Amino acid sequence: MPVFHLSPSRIARFYYHECERYLRWHCTAKEDRISCGIPEIREKGSPVTRAILERGCRWEEDVIQNHMKETVRIAKGNSPLHQRFFGIAESISVLKDLNIGESAYQPVLEVPRSFYERYGLDANLCHFPPCRPDLIQAVQDKNGEIRLRITDIKASSELKNTHRMQISLYALILRDMVQTHQIPFPADRDTGAIWLSGRQEPENIALDFSIRMMEQFLRHDLVPILAMDARKVPWHLFHRCEWCEFYLFCRKEAEEKQSVSLISGLTARGRRFLRQMNPQVNTLDEFEAFLQTESSDKILESCGSLRGKREKLQHAVAALKQGKVIVHGGSSISMPLSEDVNIMLTLQAEPLSGKIYAAGFRRLKGKEVYGSGSAEKIFIAQNPDACGEMQTAFLHALHEELRTLDAYNRTGKRQSRNRFRSTPLTRMNSIFFTVFCRENPKMPDAACARCKCCSVFRTVPLQQRRNILHLQCLFRLRC
């Protein structure tokens, strides 16, 4: 039986990918992988992954040096800050000596035997090497008692479930380490903290639910996953897999076997539902046959992500098998015949910080208003610090385009006013547009006032007002 190397970060990534294969393959010791049938992977990782790790290190150093200063204890040394950590003995000594409000940066947590025994894990099979949470802080609870709270520093703009799970596992390990080494302060298993990118202080998060999930996983789910044959462990291919080192192998396997994982939008839980059916549904042929049965609608009702999607799934399977586009009911960005001016919006966010670095719009028709039948404006930030200026320039240009149309409509007769439609090219574009309109402080005040009572909106037929109202509300955010 191979040895499996586990850690809080790896188990947290399992919750991100929702993939048993990810955990089974990554935890297997490198010297055992070939004999288990696990393919070789590139060790360097992608440039984006390396950039994310580097950004995380810079954010850690920023937090420690500029936000915490005298309230944090740091291991001595000349190496870069993110590479410094306390040894096991030093960590125990530091944690025993923390004052209220003080934190230890990168103390080492050694997983004691009591942790393995508590969850029925074989230490010779499941190996947890020493791990390092970013910060452990001494805090005072509502009863006046001192507790040790885990704080994780993340170069992320929002709290994610993986953060909760990682902090929860740290807290469980700390609980047993405190008891083993007679540290006078108990681990805080009620509350953890996450220090998100750009924040002035950490955000406290409740751990009750995630602690229970993690303990359920350790007691009942972990060992069965590790005990599976590596060649037969369940897997699924979806958009998050691009962050996994085994992605290309799984993609090739999905194509060779014509797996249902090729269906765009099929969630990990939807794939698990199909796998657990009797008989199992694993291939496109099997799924096609199932969808043709009279009972398929009723069966799909039991899965939230598949409910009511029989026809759409049939089209998706047919498109993959036939290698051509299958048309079904849905929205279109085609220009409606009854509208005179159409403006399409597109925005792009970079993967590290989530900042919107490029934005643009294209206007179609409207020659009577603008003197030309189309116009296109694209704005790209030259560096991260220029993102705000780029967004402001984009909003000013978009406002000017709308103001011109509004001014034209105000001068003409009601019957001749030009109808207008706004179209974010994708759902993500719509979300990005909402976010940076909300965050941009330099949006022209005139845009807010004009879009509230704009005659362009009033002349749009009722059935077409939904998109206009959406755009109106976006501009109203800065009022």
Helix content: 40-55%
Q: Give the CA-CA distance, first to last residue.
A: 64 Å
Low-confidence stretches: 423-429, 441-479
| Spatial strand sequence of the major β-sheet | 2-3-5-6-7-8
Tally of DSSP helical segments: 19
The class by helix and strand makeup works out as alpha/beta
Q: Tell me what portion of residues adopts beta-strand conformation.
A: 5-15%
Query: Rounded to an integer, what's the Rg over CA atoms?
Result: 28 Å
Number of strands: 12
Mean pLDDT: 83
For the largest beta-sheet, the strand count, sense and barrel status come to: 6 strands, mixed
| Shape by Cα distribution | globular
List the helices and strands and how they pair.
Elements: E1 4-5, H1 8-17, H2 20-27, H3 30-36, H4 47-68, E2 72-73, H5 88-97, E3 103-105, H6 113-118, E4 126-127, E5 135-140, E6 146-153, H7 161-180, E7 191-195, E8 203-206, H8 208-227, H9 247-257, H10 268-275, H11 284-291, H12 296-300, H13 310-322, E9 341-349, E10 356-365, H14 367-370, E11 374-380, H15 387-411, E12 420-424, H16 427-439, H17 445-453, H18 455-458, H19 465-476
Parallel strand pairs: 1-4, 2-3, 6-7, 9-12
Antiparallel strand pairs: 3-5, 5-6, 7-8, 9-10, 10-11
Helix pairs in contact: 1-2, 1-7, 7-8, 11-13, 17-19
